[in-house]
Specification:
Blueprint lengths: L1 H17 L14 H5 L5 E2 L5 E4 L5 E4 L4 H18 L6 H21 L5
Antiparallel strand pairs: 1-2, 2-3
Length: 116
Amino acid sequence: MRKILIATVMAATTLPATAAYADPPRWAPAHGYRAKNGDIMYRRTDNGIRYWDGQDGRRYCRRPDGTVGLLIGGAAGALVGRAIDTRGDRATGTIIGAAAGALIGNEVAKSRSRCR
């Protein structure tokens, strides 16, 4: 009985809170970002890049900043550097490999998307 009561209370407190994360409906009055910048309508290109038309008539796009490539490249580079440096405590190879992998991963992640 105690477990059922705890599960019911947890469900009752969790479910109403999830609706707060939804976007407001289009007809709702705008507060904050939408009030200042208007409703920005994003579109997607064939390769998945989001873009929008600015108020000045120019087309703008959102490119990834390369953070995911930086993290994955750093981890992979650390593993490769540790495997290559087999003498001593291998800290030097791990650090140099992580730095090189992070730089390479960041550049690869940034260069994959082109906004035209």
